[in-house]
Amino acid sequence: MKVTVFGIGYVGLVQAAVLAEVGHDVHCVDVDQTKVDNLKKGMIPIYEPGLTPLVTSNFEAGRITYTTDAASAIKHGELIFIAVGTPPDEDGSADLKYVLAVASTIAENMDSHKIVINKSTVPVGTADKVRAKILEVQTANDKDVSFDVVSNPEFLKEGAAVNDCLKPDRIILGTTSDVSEKKLRELYAPFNRNHDKIIVMDVRSAELTKYAANCMLATKISFMNEISNLAELFGADVENVRKGIGSDPRIGYQFIYPGCGYGGSCFPKDVQALVRSATGVGYNAKVLEAVEAVNYRQKEKLFDYLMQHYNNDLKGKTIALWGLSFKPNTDDMREASSRVLMEKLWEQGANVQAYDPEAMEETQRIYGTRSDLSLMGTKEATMNGADCLVICTEWQAFKAPDFDAIKSTIKDQVIFDGRNLFEPSLMSEYGLQYYGIGRGLSV
Ligand code: UGA
Q: Can you cite a GO biological process for this protein (predicted)?
């Protein structure tokens, strides 16, 4: 089928690649000429396991093309995805200016029936706004071409995006049009073989499903972080509690890992956006406000441990920091806990020697060159001359370090672990002091 994707970001590029992989003919449009030129040269703008070979092979096979020419791309696609960004506005609500700009462009250039599909995470009611925008621009241009607007939210996880897209656990189609449903079922048939993953519903329910999913997951995390803080105060071990509750299938083991807070481009933004949307319809979303507040506090947890350990005096301390990305297998630093920590450490006059398997360039891009940040080539190198070790991200490569080397290199022989990678009893055997989330200090 002939498909057009607006926005060659995370969601758009992965979506385009998997659709091309099963044989669809995909034209990708972006306003960023450099990005388009780079993609044509095989330079992929994001780090995502498995994406480069997928994109490259489909580009070489001619099933993906990149362009800034929206008019020709709109002519091409009978199905047009909108996968542009919806950054948070000043008040935390999702800014729809890019989505609506694409809607205008589609309206100006369409000359046959189009199915416009919202892939971006957008507030409930956005499909109606897209529809209204297309009608408005058509009217202004004296046009009357039929179209439909469908909500088809994306549920991919960074770091597992290709797999999530190739093997989705659900495909939500928000439409009441039989024609659109039939076309989208045909589009997604290759991903819907073993059992029916397609769930069809009205547009607003589909839009809310996306927010509800992310907010539910964020709620699980904040809830668990709250329990971890209580565990510490009660003298319990949150890791035992986690296993204890996870064994109940109604709760489950997934997404109940306590840590130094959730980050990324989705959870913080989506929780805030749903809170703002709720306010817009006169509702105070108290659970979600608490989810956000708990996460905000949790991102300061490692800093609080450090202040406690060093009697509120971090001036001149050198901190070895492992993990900068908001989670493993990505170079994404958006809303990463490491940033909150580093910025608070710098305020106190501490120095950071950091390492991340993928996010070094991104850290450099964000913070530039500064005397209190040294980006090191290996995790071992961060420890040279450091007073303590802090872990912010649970990369696989951090899970079995040489504890003897840590003990002999780190001056104060102490680890602050924001992801509970190690057993406190093992740390004691190595003679290391150890702070774990919901576990406090063990010596
Ligand atoms: C999230 C959702 O998981 C996807 O389903 C969704 O499609 C995506 O947002 C989106 O809206 O586009 P992602 O932001 O890539 O995906 O990241 P997650 O893997 O969900 O992790 C989010 C954060 O939660 C990370 O900082 C992670 O460290 C933290 N987390 C996760 C915990 O602190 N504890 C857990 O038990 C699980």
A: polysaccharide biosynthetic process
